[in-house]
Structure prediction request, 554 residues.
Amino acid sequence: MASEQPPEAHDEYLLELVDIEAGYGRAALVLRGLTVRVPPASVVCLVGPNGAGKSTVLKVASGMLTPRSGRILVGGKDVTRRGPQRMLDAGLSHVLQGHSVFKEMSVSENVLLGAYTIKDKAEIAERVDFVKGLFPVVADRWSSLAGALSGGQQKQVEFARSLMVSPRVVLLDEPSMGLDPKAAATVFEQVARMRDAGTAVLLVEQNARRGLETADLGCVLDLGRVHISGPAADLLADSSLGELYLGTRRPDPTAPTTTP
Amino acid sequence: MSGPLLLQSLVLGVLLGGLYALLAAGLTLYFGVMRVVMIAHSAFLILAAYLAWFFTRETGLDPLLSLVFTVPLFFGAGVLMQRLLISRLRPATLTMMSVLLTFSIALVIEGTLGFAFSGTHRRIRLPYSGAHFELFGASIAVVKLIGFGLAGFSLVALYLLLKKTRFGQALRATMQHKDAAQLVGINTDRVAGYGFGLGLATAAIGGTALSLDSTIYPSLHWHWIGPLMAVIVVGGLGSVPGAAIAAMALGLGQSLLQIPLGTTWAQTFFYVALFATLMLRPQGFFGGRLAQRF
Prediction:
């Protein structure tokens, strides 16, 4: 598999980040000519070591950070240099790392704030039904205080909030971080369900193996560039990658070595 | 302490606590939304009191009517102050620098008042200034009751605004998680500006209430800022209901202590409460759970 190639040959991508250079303040660049493409109805997972620039990719895509150079296209339309409000309008919804529910507000207030930019009441009601169907906990705990929910439940409220605007692509930053294995498994299941419900996902995961198992395509980032990209299953099967980025447990049983 | 005297003190404490509650709500709002310590809040309070006094002297109309002008004026001044000055401060040192910045604004207001109206003590004379009525032996001045009513009305309005409106939702979301608020499409800079304006609007109302019943002079604001800061620390910074409850408790405490201690020493009650809070419960009595909730 070749590096610096588009993940797969698709006629049209929902989101394209092309040749992005970005960084914080006067510090050195974090992203150095990165290109990532997200096709429709797919989960694309970015993996890589700490400091590779995974979260920065999402910040650039959601308009929280303006890239120094490069282009951002949504459905082929150039949206480079837009702020968060306009990126949201373009169809990109970002779920931050860690807990980002509005803790002292109810689940319903949180979810409805996701529709802050929507005026049409009927559309809001329809989206509420949709997210309640996708995330049962949102329906069950509708009137509870969001801060009183468990970490995994809060994540689902954040997912529901981000889906209220019917985004083309959801940007998920380490959704499994800090969750117990069972809650993390639920979160990965939900990510797959989001895709099945028609929303493409750009996923950043520290837990590379679980991330790639959920994803259709994977990109391995290193030093602000895409090092290798391709179908997630191929990346998982690649034993040299396993050693470098996926932890010690190797996917290939025939490979010589380290204890499982 | 005799029964009627105790009742009198309780009544005065409640009336005073209401005014403290309104003023502390403004202070806690600035801190909650922007982490700004607004030393000039009480200077704006005195400015509003002067404007009410000036309005009545020039027109002969009731000082309460000056609210029609001062509330929008202060709101606009708050928005401008946030957008032009506060937002220029570096986020990392915002809280400390806001103390310096707003301290200087307080000095500018005090100086301007002295220049415009001289240092002479001023007082509004109203036909109902001396009016009062009896309640179970306690005497209640009509002006104090009007001030309390004004404070109560404003607090309820503020609560409804924060709890029920789209702007209120956006403001609370910004207080609780600024980045997440931006990501749902809230213009957090604009919200911060309006939040600041709202805080100053409460100072306009509080100052007018104060002018009904007090002798005012340009440096009076120094007497107010200390107790108000104590109130919001005891209440848990950023908690509007916490500030209101603490204001009521401290107002009552001050009023009750005036009998055995006299007015000067009763004022120290605020600082004793402040020190005790910092020693025993530095997050304030309503920080954490109640903080940021309305």
User: Anything to note?
Assistant: Confidence is low (pLDDT under 50) at residues 1-10, 248-253, 255-260 of chain A. The radius of gyration of chain A is 18 Å. Strands of chain A lie at 15-23, 29-38, 43-47, 69-74, 77-78, 92-95, 169-173, 200-204, 217-222, 225-231. Chain A touches chain B at residues 62, 64, 84-85, 88-89, 93-94, 96, 100-105, 109, 112-114, 116-117, 158, 161-162, 165 (CB under 8 Å).
